[in-house]
Amino acid sequence: MTHWWRHAAIYQIYVRSFADGNGDGTGDLAGVRSRLPYLRELGVDALWFNPWYTSPMADGGYDVADYRDIDPLFGSLAEAEQLITEAHGHGLRVLVDLVPNHCSDQHAWFRAALAAGPGAPERERFWFVPGRGGSGELPPNDWVSYFGGSAWTRVTEADGSAGPWYLHMFAPEQPDLNWEHPEVRAEFEDILRFWLDRGVDGFRIDVAHGLAKKPGLPDVGPDPDVTDLPYQDCDEVHDIYRSWRKILDSYDGDRTFVGEVWLPAAEQTARYLRPDELHSAFNFDFLCCPWDAAALRGVVDSTFAGHAPVGAPPTWVLSNHDTIRHVTRYGREDTSFDMGDKRLLDPSDPVLGRRRARAAALLTLSLPGGVYVYQGDELGLPEVQDLPDALIQDPTFERSGGVDRGRDGCRIPLPWQSGGPSLGFSPPGAKAPWLPQPADWAELSASAQEADPDSFLTLYRAALALRRERLTSLGETLTWVDAGRDTVCFDRGDAFRCLVNLGDPVALPPDARVLMASAELDEPGVLPRDTAVWLER
Ligand code: GLC
188 C-alpha vs ligand 1 centroid, how far in Å? Predict the structure, then answer.
């Protein structure tokens, strides 16, 4: 049996921005339920939902206050159960996002920890540590939060005195959990069971490399070795996944874990994908790769080389809710992405970006392994770079002193129709969407693209259908074909070839039939620049 997750096309739903069912301007489960037929017709195999749990939304739901309930903004637990059942009825599997590295500062455990006072056992589930300096006025170590600024915040005790500091690798509203504490481990095992009992087909593990911390929480120092940081990829983390894997495997169905493992070396990532740990991980090397043939071939090779020893399937992804939408990235002078870089207002050529994104879609959807489609990829949505400062909600904006524009630009509510105040995101008479949509998105709406044979949506639908019909049965390997320095070209099986041209026009093989092309071939037999074709040989 081939496991579905070895070759699945998984659609990422950022619930807040997908579709609004109740008219409050925020996406919700009712909105998703009403669009399930759209997702089925798109031709994906599964849905991954960004966190939908009770949350103050300090970080878009990655600050979870109750892992066993749905935020009222999105709906109710009963509705989530209904949604899971309905998705299954449409042949769509469901993955939920598990956020184990940290919880919300409004989670019952953290509130209890603060209330319990210095030295209380409730504080041991987190990292409460006395400060340095004469009166503890300096943070316990030099760790910097991924969102900027110190990773520590000092507690003010109930009597007004200054207390110890607590660790938060992200925003201060996201205290890190202490995974050395048995109650933390037991709690998450129970949360896994809670959702498995409700029929989910698996989990996306947030910050999967981050849960364990090096004993003693040592300083990073001025010139750290990025492959050996004390707050990521510590060996103890693998025990956690081994225990989770046993739980998952004790359930029926073919359920799966995908890890957000974001580490510098491919060998580090592969260790999370050993047969008794996670099943797959997002391929961030591919997501970050510039639009350059040699670089792309290199990443494909290193991905296969990294995954082979552990037998895990590769995955491919171009964009997600944390990155710059690739239509915009590919239209820039620097087409790479680096999570550590600040998101700036770099100019981008929209025509070029769209053309490359279409070619990249055919590349990504034809590589062996799993593939992720971020909501709006199929509509060719660009990054919205000019949100007014006052509307930006991503904590990275404030924490970087406004230098980093943050991630809201890839989280704009989807345009479903070409008219109306929210382009069909919300029902008539609703509140304005939580982030404004650019006016020219009317022409990018799903309904505007639906019947257009040249639209992004048509391209994605056709490619996903062909992928399902013909490609998933072609095995898990590819054979490189040398079609020129600026091409990415490979065969799968005897009859299928993908050819992507990033340079001057190249000739198509004379005996090949074009199954699909990302752009019109003006001259027969010639593949223009920034164009991909799927060929039948
Ligand atoms: C992951 C999520 C991101 C979130 C962070 C903290 O990187 O993808 O959106 O801000 O974890 O939970």
Answer: 18
**What distance in angstroms lies between residue 7's CA and the mean position of ligand 1's atoms?**
25
Catalytic residue list contains 159: no
- Which residues belong to CATH 3.20.20.80 in the chain? 4-98+181-217+225-338+350-382+410-450
For the record, the structure tokens of 377 come out as 């990829």
For the question of residue 239 being annotated catalytic, the response is no
C-alpha–C-alpha distance, residues 357 and 487, integer Å: 15
Q: Write down the catalytic residue from 59, 71, 79, 260.
A: 260
Given CA atoms 419, 425, 429, 432 in this order, what sign does their dihedral have?
negative
pLDDT tens for 466-498 read 999 999 999 999 999 999 999 999 999 999 999
Q: Whose CA is nearest to atom 2 of ligand 1?
A: 206
Q: What is the CATH number of domain 108-167?
A: 3.90.400.10
Tell me if the domain spanning 478-536 has CATH number 1.50.10.10: no
Q: In which region does residue 380 sit, left (phi positive, over 0), alpha (psi from -120 to 50) or beta (all else)?
A: left
pLDDT digits (tens, 9 = 90+) for 385-421: 999 999 999 999 998 888 889 999 999 999 999 999 9
Among residues 20, 206, 233, 377, the one annotated as catalytic is: 206
- Cα(412)–Cα(383) distance, rounded to whole angstroms? 8
Report whether residue 284 contacts ligand 1, using a CB cutoff of 6 Å: no
